[in-house]
Structures are given as C-alpha cells and as structure tokens.
C-alpha cells in the first residue's frame, strides 16, 4: 500500500499541449498512436494519459497513514463520473477497460499491442479506484474515476465509440473486446501494488525516466530501448517560428523573460537526459525546462533541437517522438507485437522490474 500511496497515478500533463485527434483515427498504415480525443468528445489538445492521462506522479500526502489491500471491495465494478452530465455510471471493470482501450490506442493496432494497452488501462483503473476508496476526491462525487480526459485516462462510452469509429465500429469493438478478454484479470504490480502504468505515443528511440519528467524516481519507470519508434511517421516533426513569433510567445508566457540582442543567442540548451529530453535551457537570461518550452510552443515532445537561420530570420524546432516518453511507447508496443512479441513480453520490457499478476489473487 505504501507504493500505492507513494505516487499519484494521474498522468494528463503529458499531452495537454498536443493536438492528438488526427493520430488516433484507425488507419491501415500503422499510424502512430496518440492518446484519445474524439471529435466532439474531447477538446483538442487536452487528453488523458499520456496517459498523455493527467498529472505526473507526485508524493501522496497520506503516505504511511493508511494500510490494507491494494485491491479491495468489489473488484468487478468501477464508478465513472461523466463530467459532461454530472452523472455517475457504474460499469463492470471489463466494459470500462474496453472503452478505455478504444479511446487510448488505435484499434487497427496488432492484437498483442491492444492486450498490453488493456493491462495498462486495467492497472490504471484499479489503482485509481483504490486511491479514491482510501482518500475520496470530492470533485469525483463518489466515483472512482472520471471520463474527463484532461485529468484521467480516456474512456469511450459505446455511443462515443460508435461516433468515432463509424462503420468500422463493430469490427473494432469485437477486436478490442477479444484483446481485453484474453488478458483476464491481469494487472501490473510492483511489490504487490498496482503500478503507475504511464504510457505515451512514441518515444525518441529510448523511453524516459519518471525522475526526469516528473522529478520523482519510480523503480519501474526507467529508460529502455524503443528503437522501433524511429519508424513512426510522427518520430520527427519540424516547426518553424519567426523571430517575432518566438519572442512574443516566450515573453508572453514567461514572467521576466526578455529576448534582446543577437537572436542566435536567445535560446541555449544546457542539459539533456540520456534519452534526449531537454532538462535545462535558457531563453535570454531566464532558465526553463524542456517541458516548459514544449508547452509554450505546443511541441510533440520535450526531446528537441533548435536551430536559428540568420538568413531567414527563423527558428527551426525539431522534435523526436510524441508524448512525455515515460513507460510504454504505444507505437513501440505495436512494433514489438508485429515482430512476434506477446503482450506480457511487451509489458515487462517497458515496465522493467514490475510483474504481471491476477488481481483476483492479490491479498
């Protein structure tokens, strides 16, 4: 329980600055996954998990003040607050996971990748449910979780899924349901507790550590190889900004920022992680993180380079990957599945040190 209370499993900070809608649509060319946000269902740029699903893991203020089982009460139900209507839906855990997978990963992906996503989604839900039963959040109105994808894991109701997938709905529902059912009651655990099952769309070739992104080390959220992501159509993206545009965004977004003099000296990257995430940079005399810069310029990731062209008077920002980079890469999971890896192998690769357990067998 102390691990459960140690880290808050809400991950939505991840994709809040990234327009993801175009990437989740089912395609036949293995398009890169991004966290769900359906047209008219989620607002553009605000999605869950990354879970590019909510706020980074932080120390829980109640750590050490509660005990008991990591999985308690009715293990087959989940109360979900519909944030649009204010109504609380009571769903079977199985149906919730189906809706979450439909919302979080392209249903065109390999079955083993969908299974891996199902276990991650179930783990997220079980951890969140236990957290609420130990320390209820008044904003959830008695529910365990919400379908507000800016704060929690994304979830499609059947009606939302039908609207999103259109004529392919029945086919994709059958495929995802089979993937979910085949994983039984599997969850990811570390020292007997459901883990923070963070995931993202596409890494920069190597996943990132929770410590780099959120400031707190998590034993099973450490860098691992995900070189298959380099094949993703969204692996590289270049954005170009004029001097005036970059200056305006920086000075408007950061108190005390002032960009004067030679534009070539405005931005300097000072420190990177081993996975490529920009940890520290400067804008003029002001220091900021790569995540800050990512948010200001709506970049796909905080793994980027900046080049200035005096001839054009422009800044070119090139990113690698999409998302915070922590935990399972969805595109990487699909690559592993296409290469013959099963869902358990995928999960144990991306969550090193974690184990797969049947939640019904947990004390």
Describe the structure.
The protein is an alpha+beta fold and 363 residues long. The chain has eleven helices and 14 strands. The strands form five sheets. It has a three-stranded mixed β-sheet. It has a three-stranded antiparallel β-sheet with strand order 5-4-14.
Write the layout of secondary structure elements.
Blueprint: H1 2-6, H2 21-24, E1 77-81, E2 88-92, H3 93-104, H4 111-134, E3 145-146, H5 158-165, H6 169-182, E4 186-190, E5 193-194, E6 199-200, H7 210-214, E7 236-242, H8 243-253, E8 267-272, E9 278-283, E10 286-288, H9 290-296, E11 304-309, E12 314-320, E13 328-329, H10 330-338, H11 343-350, E14 355-358
Parallel strand pairs: 1-3, 6-13
Antiparallel strand pairs: 1-2, 4-5, 4-14, 7-12, 8-9, 9-10, 11-12
Concise account of the structure shown:
By secondary structure, the protein is α+β, with helices and mostly antiparallel strands. Helix content is 29%, strand content 17%. The longest helix is centred in the middle third of the chain and has 24 residues, at 111-134.
